[in-house]
Amino acid sequence: MDGAIIGLIGTAVGALTGVLGTLAAARLGGAEQRRTQNDQSERQGRATAYASLVIESNRAYRVGYATHTGVLDHIAPLDRVDALRDFMVAAEAVYEAVSITKLHGPDAIARAADSLASALSTWHSEVGLLAEGQGEEQRASEAIELYEELEERFVTMGRQMLSGAPMA
Q1: In whole angstroms, what is the distance from residue 121 CA to residue 157 CA?
Q2: Local structure of residue 75 (DSSP, 8 states)
Q3: How far apart, in whole angstroms, are the C-alpha atoms of residue 72 and residue 103?
Q4: Distance CA 149, CA 112 (A)
Q5: What are all long-range contacts of 38-41, with beta carbons under 8 Å and residues at least 24 apart?
Q6: What DSSP element (H or E) covers 135?
Q7: 142/24: higher pLDDT
Q8: Is the sign of the CA dihedral 55, 60, 65, 70 positive or negative?
Q9: Contacts of 87 (CB under 8 A, 6+ apart)
Q10: From the DSSP assignment, how many helices (H) and strands (E) are in the chain?
Q11: Distance between CA 101 and CA 52 in Å, rounded?
């Protein structure tokens, strides 16, 4: 073989290697970009779900607290019924937000959301018993304290999850 042909073959092999390298790099870069976009989308979904739960749990707290204190202050029976209904509507919004939060996870956050919903349900039940004259003020007060504690715990865990910090 003459030197010109060997040079052409070398050039062709070099060009082919360059093209294949470029294609491989583009493919790997595209995969990394998709992974980054998926991570960002997942983080945004979690942030939206967590924020929704915090907003709804704060609203339920305000409505529940007003109902709780109204029952203790012996508001009129019809007002009491309306207040308990409003408390239940607020609680149902929390339960919906919990469901969405559980879809986004992770498991520790889902468990914290479930605990918050359970505490809210207990608090609502205790206030309902108080309204019927069958409850104990101490139990209702303990229920609200547990709800406050679990709400704060959820907020802390949500912040840690969204910031990427390890969860305790």
Answers
A1: 21
A2: -
A3: 38
A4: 11
A5: none
A6: none
A7: 142
A8: positive
A9: 60, 63, 64, 67, 124, 127
A10: 4, 0
A11: 8
Which of these, 94, 21, 112, 26, lies nearest to 56 by C-alpha position? 94
Query: Mind giving me the DSSP string for 1-53?
Result: --HHHHHHHHHHHHHHHHHHHHHHHHHHHHHHHHHHHHHHHHHHHHHHHHHHH
Mean pLDDT of 90-94: 96
3-state secondary structure of 79: helix
Q: Are 146 and 135 in contact (CB under 8 A)?
A: no
Whether the per-residue pLDDT at 126 is higher than 90: the answer is yes
Whether 127 has a pLDDT exceeding 80, the answer reads yes
Task: Provide the token pair at 117.
Answer: 């919903």
26 pLDDT above the threshold of 70: no
pLDDT (average), residues 109-125 = 96
Q: How far apart are CA 117 and CA 66, in angstroms?
A: 19
For residue 131, which amino acid is it? Answer: A
Q: What share of the chain is helix, strand, coil (3-state, %, to 5)?
A: 90, 0, 10
End-to-end CA distance of the chain: 71
